[in-house]
Amino acid sequence: MTRSGVPITADCRALLSSRLPPSSSSCSRSNTPSPLFSSPSSPPTMRPPRVPLPTQRLFSTSPLLRTPATIQLHPTHLTVSRPSLPSLHITYPALRDACPSGIHPSTTQKTWATTDVPPSIRPARSELCEDGEVLRVEWDQPLRGRAEAGESTYRISDLLSTFSPSPRYPAYTPTPRPWTPTTFPSSPIPLSALQRDPEAHYRATTQLLERGLLFISGVPTSPRGDKDCAMRSVAEGLFGEVRRTFYGETWDVRALGGRSRNVAYTGLDLGYHMDLLYFASPPRFQFLHSLISLPATSSPQGHSLFLDAYHAASLLSPEAFSILSQTPIQYQYLNDGHHYVHSHPLLSLFPSPSPASPSTSPASSSGSPNLNLESINYSPPFQSPSQPDLTALPPASQQAFYAALKEWEAILAHPELTLELRLEEGMCVVFDNRRVLHARRAFDEGGEEGEVVRWLKGCYVDGDAVWDKWRVLDAQVRGAGASADVAVDPEAAVAA
Known about the structure:
Strands 8, 9, 10, 11, 13, 20 and 22 form a 7-stranded mixed sheet that branches. The protein has a 4-stranded antiparallel sheet with strand order 1-2-3-4. The two termini are 46 Å apart. By secondary structure, it is of the alpha+beta class. The protein has helices spanning 12-19, 92-97, 156-162, 191-196, 198-211, 230-238, 309-314, 318-326, 388-391, 395-412, 463-478, 483-488, and strands at 56-60, 69-73, 77-81, 88-91, 123-129, 134-139, 151-155, 189-190, 213-217, 242-243, 250-253, 270-273, 285-293, 304-308, 328-335, 338-345, 347-349, 373-376, 419-421, 428-432, 436-440, 454-461.
């Protein structure tokens, strides 16, 4: 045991051998119970960490971790630290509530409620086992309704995963990596590779979650029906179940002349936007499969454009970022027997864990784009004429909002941010509809001889389905528990 501020510079085994008598078990421990901290005369209470009190430090040199972890036990909480990474501060009630023994082996559901954990619970004894890979804790009091205080064992890698301080959601998924056309992986991935090689499938899904954009080549262009099209097989076979909307499960993007009920079904120029923002929960991922794309020599129009809005948000001034993250914009679809309406701020942020979190600034202290962005919501064609949240603001605040929106629009106009290409026949693009803006150049709707010059097949897949697929692939390819490092290690975040 050490006093606050006096570290023990030894690895786990050396520390335990000097502190405790030898034992034949994999966990060294003393023969007689000894409290982890100086025993107070009154029952333990939750005290602020700023009060200097006895602490204990344990050191993990587990090969599962990229860098060694220091586990420091305080009277009210536990701290896990690694060099150059954020420290984790875990209160003992939270630690006890996360005990793996509380998970039912077949249902995988919790067997107690958080409120069954005593707020004043603390360790009676703790030790590192299995060469520093496991923390074992004996508790000083039982859960509500139980007679024994019990004990818990935690893998250090699981602690880092479970209690990651990152506000990113969903958990256990790769950190978003902002991009520009010069840093985006430009080569499409052949469909045949995704179907036969789990590692290629895993890399492609990782790219989709990190970059928000993926191109797949070699997708058959026939059959073209809603039920038997190849795009449906790609979506459901490789990424997740298709989400049905009022457009159906799949839909066709081609010019319909005067019968069009959506600007996408014309040959008009279509600026940067996102789909279905008039939904309370817009679909996360969109698939577009090129069924017909006449050669560029005969139809040079109709190029597709993509832009990483997470990177664009990082270029906003702090004032504009704050305004656009706090002012909801109302979106509406009123046509063809439907009336959808919902409001979202242009920048949707994850809830901040504390007032000190950088939730209203486009860049962190390191200069990297802020990863507190949950989604972007921008679709000018579907903005409602009525903007009740905006008109409720004072005139000066309304003017500030329009200035911030102009700043956003000016950033999107930077040509170096736009990835432009022709979706050739057989190409399928998959993109994060809540992050990547998409657009289309105008084209001649009928071609020179009245033929269809551009025909895309589309569908949506919800985020939960794709995140689920990635976690399963991650466990299959890298091994069970591999996503622990992904969830807590910001070294993978690379700014464009």
